[in-house]
Amino acid sequence: MKIRKTLFLALVTGTFLISCNQSKEEKKEEVKNQVTKTSDEVQKVIDELGLVYVEEGAQTIITYEEVNKAQQDWCDALVKIGKLKEEGGDYKAFAEQVLSDAYNYDYGKVFFKPTLAYGDQTFRNDKKGALAYFIGGDADYPNDKGFALTPWVKARYDNAGKNNEGIQIYGSIAITMGNVWVTDKNGKEVMVDKTWVFKKGKDGKLRIIVHKSSLPFSPTK
User: Fold this and answer.
1) What is the tens place of the pLDDT at every residue in 157-176?
2) Which of 28, 62, 183, 189 might form a disulfide with 154, Cβ 3.0–4.6 angstroms?
3) Residues 94, 80: contact at Cβ < 8 Å?
4) Mean of per-residue pLDDT scores for the chain
């Protein structure tokens, strides 16, 4: 049943290319072999990483290494936006490129809840709203001063727990929960609670589909 389901998905999505000159039986056998090969490769990664949540029939798998790299790339990009602004570079163009490269806006839906947004602009459902948060200058978002323009000179992250316990992988989807620390040029460091969800595209790149950020809760005495 699993092979039949995977075979159907492969045929519908066009995952495999088959010669028009092949007979129906030959086509089925080739697809079956390719599905089996892909499934074996995916299963190998699942076993190596000790994953337990991967969806049935997954045809691609995200690794912990890819997730950690995507998180660090986000931190590095945040710092670079502010650095370009300070140096008189085209920080706007770079920020737009970051949103295309790191987020899923050009391919589908993104849920974005930034740290300092509030009221009816708490949630940003499009690239325009996200860009306004990072670099400001948008009349439709008058409260945004540009979070990335502080500027931050250093940014780092970690995930909850040890040994990648703060990362869940479900095949082409990965979820992270932890913290991000950003440091300004005066040495002041700020920590935020961060949850990301990454999706692996057909081009093999991880892109953010959920970004939830907030300041840690501090109870009053």
Assistant:
1) 999 999 899 999 999 999 99
2) 183
3) yes
4) 87
